[in-house]
Each structure stands twice: as structure tokens, then as C-alpha cells.
Design a protein that fits this description.
Largest sheet: 5 strands, mixed
Low-confidence stretches: 499-518
Number of domains: 2
Radius of gyration: 29 Å
Order of helices and strands: HHHHHHHHHHHHHHHHHHHEHEEHEEH
Strand content: 5-15%
Structural class: alpha/beta
Length: 518
């Protein structure tokens, strides 16, 4: 029997080596896919209003930049300062601007891998989680979006990785490192305080011995953040509250929380299939996670799993509850980007832990097919936004064909969020100056010849602006429009006809003798 055992040992070793090489190859393919999907449609859509604001801030000197961000109130300044440096290095071309969030999202792969290892995720679960992260619509969009969310994602993962190290041992270096990263986190996005709060809640629940050094670090963060908090609060009071910034955000329904997890699980369309998949995967995850938590071998492993669960589910439900209590909603999938990796890690672990084997095979086959469809959707149907750049160019061309107006053309907007981006494109891309005016209603529109713009999807009156203007004696001319999943922007010409001449007078004019010429 000894020769047989000795002969089988090399075969077993070589089989494990082959399996290991296949796993490494699969992970490398996924990393390449993660990068390629984000690079594929990097410049597919133009800058929107928020991105334009970021870019305009980056054009200022530092003092003016900080003042503009302070007056805007709703975001801390760190990402604006980073963009300021980036623009100084490479300019304002679209590829260069989009490259910043793209590179930050690629850097996030480092802490993603660390968190996976800390949770002791096996290779099959790691492959599933990384695959779902690669095709995640929210992640792909923010990897191209010139705002703070790619940086927020990176720093939140770095905070999670350092916090997991703190659970292992609260050394001075680890406490200082976590404090520094969390300080950068809250100076990037106010939702960073939710991450810190969950870390403190977890320590209170699982390991109170480490609570004291953590709270000391948090006190330092609060002290260093206080100057910005004070000046932003003063700016909010001066502008009469946050309604100008947050008034457009509706109060969420419980379906919005559910829809967030639909997006985490893969493609958002078609809606019936995506809706069914979230219930299917939630059920499979719950069944498998019961086994995962029971199989945890050490208190540290259990503690890290519970922290991942808190971070995966507490931010969305907290944001939902707070948004429905506050006067102005703070709901937004972009803020909840911190929950994506913990959720996907738990989902993958739950699917791999399913028993019996045939059930696991069926569930993973369905998830794989859904993921393959997600690759198709996210590459060939990217999440586009209203192309106000093209819309502005079409409006300029249409205005020229409609006849030369006296003076600069006027556009009166029934939606207060449209004038800002259009003014940017008029001045920066087309080098024209128009009169762009926000009006509260159709009754305030005046002038014999004026362009009128509004958002059809947010228009709440039973009669359209075109009908209301016709009732006031206007005629409606040609127009242009641009749309996306949320909005449909329309701009049309409204003009007053010349009063009709009496028939007899017209006859006299047509038949009067022509003046004699020499």
C-alpha cells in the first residue's frame, strides 16, 4: 500500500496546483474585466450639472474654491481640492477629467482584496463577489463620474480594512491610521460619519475594550472637522436651509431600499427579471449565511462577519428612515456606495455555502447567467445622462434657422436646474452669450419671441407649457429635446404673431400704385 500512497501523492499535488492556476487565471480575467468595463465607455456622456460645478470650482484659486464649496454646503472640500490639482496637471479635456475617478476606482481593488481576505472568503466566493462588483451599475457609473464618490468608495474600504485590523489588536499605529483615513473620509462625504458610527456601534456590541482608543480617535476627527462644520452651517443658515440643494430629492419609499440591492445584484433591466432576482438571491444568501456564521472558527472571524453585515444593511435602512424624518431627504444610491463590497462579500459567501450540492449548483448557474447578461448590459447600454452639450448645439442651430433675433436670444426655464449647465456649454463649448432666466411659472414668461425650457418628467400640471402659452396668445414653433432614465428636457420657441390686417386695407396695400422711380 505504501507505493500506491506514494504514487498518488504527486497526482494530488499536481491537481491542486492546476486548480490553483485556474483560480488565479479566473481572478486575473475578472480584474481585467473590472478595468475594461470601466474604461470602455469612459467618455460616453457629457458633464452634468454637479460635474460642471466641480470643474468650475477647480478653475478658481484655492480661497475662491473653498468659499464656493462652503456656500454650496452639501459636500466637504477634499474631492474638489484633488480635482483642482488634477486639472492643474492635465487640463480640462473630457478624457483627462474622467480618468481621475477611473484611476481611483482601480486603486480601490487593493482594499477590496484585503477585506475579502480578512473575511476569510474562499476563492470561489471571491470570484463571485469580484464578478458582481465588476458589473455593478452604480460602481461603473461612479468610476466615470467627476465627483467625490469614487474617492468616497476607496476611503470607505480603506477604513473597513483598517478597522478589521483594529479588531485584531488596537495598537497605536492602527488607531492613528484608522483615525487619519476616517478624517479624510468625512472631509470627502458627510456620509463618512455613518461609517464611523457603525464602527463605534460594532465595538459597543462586540469588543468594548477597544472602544476607548477608537473614541479618542473619533474625538480628534470631530475636533479637526469642527471648523468646516461651523462654516458650512453658517452658509446653510445664510441661504435659508438646504432646500435649494436637496429639494429635488424625493422622500424614499421602502421600494427604493429594495431597488438599491437590485442594483448591487447585477443589471437593473428588465425590471421584472431584476426584481425577481433580488428575492431569489436574498433567499439563497440567507440560507447560506446561516451556515457561514455557524462555521466561524474564532471570535475575531465572527466579529468581522457581523461588522460586514452591519455595513451591508444599516446604511441603506438608516438613510431611508432619516430621509423620511427630515424635512429634506438625503436619500441617494451614490451615498450608499459604502455598502456594496460588504454586501457582495456576504452574498458570495452565502451562495457558496449553500447545501445540498445540487441546490448550490443550480443557484450559482442562475447567478452566472444573470452576471453574463449584466456584462452585456453594462458594456453595450451604459448609464447615460441627458446630453445637454448636444442639446445646446442643436438649439443654437435651430435658433439660427428660426431667424435672427434682436439682441441675444432668451431662454426662460420653468425648471431651475437647467440654466446652469446650459450656460456652461454656451460659454465653454460654443462661445456664445444668451439670456438664461429662471421663471416660477408660465404666467411670468414674456416677450414676443422667447425659447422656453422645462423638464417633461417633473412637470406636474395637467396642461403642458405649450398649451398654457397658446391660451395666452403665443404660437409654438420648433424645439429640441434630450432625455435619460430620469428626465426629458424640452426647449421650444414661443412667439406672438403679428396682429392680422383688415382685408380691405390689405387689398389697398396690394393694389396701390407703385412709387415712380427715376
Amino acid at each position: 500500500m505504501a507505493p500506491i500512497a506514494a504514487a498518488s501523492a504527486p497526482d494530488s499535488t499536481s491537481a491542486k496546483a492546476r486548480l490553483r492556476r485556474l483560480e488565479v487565471a479566473a481572478l486575473l480575467v475578472l480584474v481585467a474585466g473590472f478595468i475594461g468595463i470601466r474604461l470602455w465607455n469612459l467618455t460616453a456622456f457629457c458633464l452634468d450639472s454637479d460635474e460642471i460645478f466641480s470643474l468650475l470650482c477647480a478653475r478658481y484659486h484655492l480661497g475662491h474654491l473653498l468659499e464656493s464649496v462652503r456656500a454650496d454646503v452639501v459636500h466637504p472640500p477634499l474631492s474638489y481640492l484633488l480635482l483642482w490639482v488634477w486639472v492643474k496637471i492635465g487640463g480640462e479635456s473630457m478624457p483627462w477629467l474622467r480618468l481621475l475617478p477611473f484611476l481611483i476606482s482601480i486603486l480601490a481593488l487593493g482594499p477590496v482584496w484585503i477585506v475579502f481576505r480578512q473575511l476569510r472568503i474562499g476563492t470561489p466566493a471571491r470570484i463571485i463577489a469580484l464578478a458582481l462588483l465588476a458589473i455593478n451599475d452604480y460602481q461603473v457609473f461612479h468610476a466615470r463620474y467627476v465627483r467625490m464618490y469614487a474617492l468616497f468608495f476607496l476611503l470607505s474600504l480603506a477604513s473597513v480594512a483598517l478597522y478589521n485590523l483594529l479588531l485584531e489588536g488596537a495598537t497605536r499605529k492602527r488607531v492613528i491610521a484608522l483615525t487619519l483615513v476616517n478624517l479624510l473620509l468625512v472631509y470627502t462625504q458627510y456620509f463618512g460619519w455613518m461609517v464611523i458610527g457603525i464602527e463605534g456601534l460594532h465595538l459597543l456590541w462586540m469588543d468594548r475594550r477597544k472602544l476607548k482608543p477608537f473614541l479618542l480617535g473619533t474625538a480628534v476627527i470631530a475636533l479637526l472637522f469642527a471648523p468646516w462644520a461651523y462654516t458650512a452651517t453658517q452658509a446653510a443658515i445664510a441661504k435659508g436651509g438646504l432646500a435649494p440643494n436637496l429639494g429635488w430629492i424625493r422622500h424614499p419609499k421602502i421600494g427604493d431600499v429594495w431597488w438599491y440591492y437590485v442594483g448591487c445584484n447585477g443589471p437593473l433591466w428588465p425590471i421584472p427579471v431584476a426584481s425577481a432576482m433580488v428575492f431569489f438571491l436574498f433567499g439563497a444568501m440567507a440560507a447560506g449565511l446561516w451556515r457561514v456564521f455557524r462555521a466561524a472558527r474564532t471570535p475575531l472571524e465572527t466579529s468581522r462577519l457581523r461588522f460586514a453585515a452591519l455595513l451591508a444593511f444599516l446604511p441603506p435602512f438608516t438613510a431611508y428612515l432619516v430621509s423620511n424624518v427630515l424635512r429634506n431627504s438625503i436619500w441617494g444610491n451614490r451615498h450608499l456606495i459604502v455598502s456594496a463590497v460588504p454586501y457582495l462579500a456576504l452574498l458570495a459567501m452565502g451562495l457558496v455555502a449553500l447545501r445540498p450540492k445540487w441546490l448550490r449548483l443550480i443557484v450559482l448557474s442562475i447567478a452566472a447567467a444573470w452576471g453574463a447578461f449584466g456584462v452585456y448590459r453594462v458594456t453595450l447600454y451604459p448609464e447615460l445622462r441627458n446630453n445637454l452639450d448636444v442639446l445646446t448645439g442643436q438649439l443654437i442651430e435651430l435658433n439660427a434657422r428660426a431667424g435672427p433675433p434682436s439682441g441675444a436670444p432668451t431662454v426662460e426655464f420653468l425648471d431651475p436646474y437647467l440654466a446652469f449647465p446650459m450656460n456652461y456649454y454656451l460659454e465653454s463649448h460654443y462661445h456664445q452669450k444668451w439670456n438664461l432666466v429662471n421663471v416660477a411659472g408660465v404666467d411670468e414668461i414674456s416677450g414676443d419671441r422667447v425659447w422656453v425650457g422645462y423638464n417633461r418628467k417633473s412637470w406636474r400640471q395637467s396642461r403642458t407649457p405649450e398649451d398654457l402659452l397658446r391660451a395666452r396668445g403665443y404660437q409654438i414653433g420648433p424645439g429640441v429635446w434630450a432625455g435619460d432614465r430620469w428626465d426629458r428636457i424640452a426647449i421650444f420657441l414661443a412667439f406672438k404673431a403679428f396682429p392680422p390686417q383688415p382685408t380691405a386695407k390689405l387689398w389697398q396695400i396690394r393694389h396701390s400704385p407703385k412709387p415712380r422711380t427715376n
